[in-house]
Write a structure and sequence with these properties.
mainly alpha
Length: 179
């Protein structure tokens, strides 16, 4: 009879025992699979935003540390005040000076209309000349600030034609190179 009683005891499994034996390991595997999927997504996003693939070769802890450092750096970068370019600051000052000159000339009773017109025309022409002189440097800044893709092969077909015309020719110097 002893064998029958042990058979009955094994047939009856409590819900707690069933949870501990079957459900808990299954739930843990599912939780780890979700975490790994999220870590992989985070890894590819950070690699895409950073522009290098070094993070793809890191283990999970290193990858999380690198992602946190990247996010902190981006937050600091966004909080930093953007200082205007020197030329923009100069343009703003120039326009303030022009408006002040205009105001003073309008208030001066002895000021001739022709002289005022000539001065304001001259200031406007100089401002337009300054804007036109600044435009080529603005285009160069925009092309140089464009991030380089890690997928770029470096061939001429990957670059714009304007960049190819601006790129310097390699100099034949006597500098020693290890390759």
């Amino acid at each position: 009879m002893a064998p029958q009683s042990s058979l009955n005891e094994t047939a009856f499994v409590s819900k707690t025992q069933h949870y501990l034996k079957v459900k808990k390991p299954l739930l843990e595997r599912q939780r780890r699979a979700r975490m790994n999927k999220c870590l992989d997504s985070l890894k590819t996003l950070v690699a895409e935003f950073q522009g290098d693939d070094a993070i793809l070769r890191m283990d999970k802890a290193e990858m999380l540390e690198e992602a946190l450092a990247f996010m902190r750096k981006e937050v600091v970068k966004q909080q930093a005040p953007v200082s205007p370019l020197p030329m923009d600051s100069f343009k703003n000052g120039y326009m303030n000076a022009v408006s002040e000159i205009s105001r003073v000339m309008a208030c001066a009773p002895a000021m001739s209309v022709e002289v005022g017109k000539t001065v304001m025309t001259h200031l406007g022409v100089e401002f337009q000349r300054m804007l036109q002189a600044d435009q080529p440097t603005q285009a160069q800044l925009e092309s140089s600030s464009r991030p380089i893709s890690p997928a770029s092969s470096g061939y001429h077909s990957d670059a714009d034609e304007s960049e190819a015309a601006v790129s310097p020719k390699p100099e034949s110097s006597s500098m020693w190179r290890p390759w």
